[in-house]
Amino acid sequence: MDAFLKDLYGHQAWADAEHWHAFAAIPAALEDDVIRKRLEHILQCERAFLCLARGEGIAVKTVADFPDMEAMRQDYRRYHDEAAAFLDTATEARLGELLSIPWLKDPPARITVAEGLVQAAMHSHYHRAQNASRLRELGGSPPLTDLILWHWKGRPAPGW
Question: What is the CATH number that goes with domain 2-152?
């Protein structure tokens, strides 16, 4: 599981960086409320699951907490650095520990740390696809960020 998660999170960091470059190329994209709110939501979810995985209280930000979109982009980069550092030190035992998902209460959701991290990566992928569609509506050209493409390119590091 450890190697799979590192691969999944390597792809996630690369894909997030590719999308940020595409948004920066179309000034209207980073001013678009739909994209901005989704970027906020993606980062909130990624950070929430990382906080849970590390056994910390959940601390997330909103768009209003950033002075500009560049500051949010930098927080995405910090998140990915933190996630990679966590995965470098997480033991199989830690990845197998159970988490309670605080926003799913009735009945309580209990999943492993590894399952929570996979959820965060898949959820981010879902919303990146929505942002890609919105970017196209705004006249942009969304990047191709499929996992298989990342593998084919030799698993490149994110180009923040």
Answer: 1.20.120.450
Question: Domain spans of the chain?
Answer: 2-152
CB neighbourhood size of 72 (10 A): 21
Residue written as token pair 């990382």: 50
69-89 vs 2-25: helix axis angle to the nearest 10? 170
pLDDT at 1: 64
Q: Tokens 């035992």 belong to which residue?
A: 93
Instruction: Report pLDDT for 141.
Output: 94
Can you tell me the distance from the alpha carbon of 117 to that of 122, in angstroms, rounded to the nearest whole number?
A: 9
Say what the pTM is: 0.93
Directed axis angle between helix 33-53 and helix 113-137, to 10°?
Answer: 170
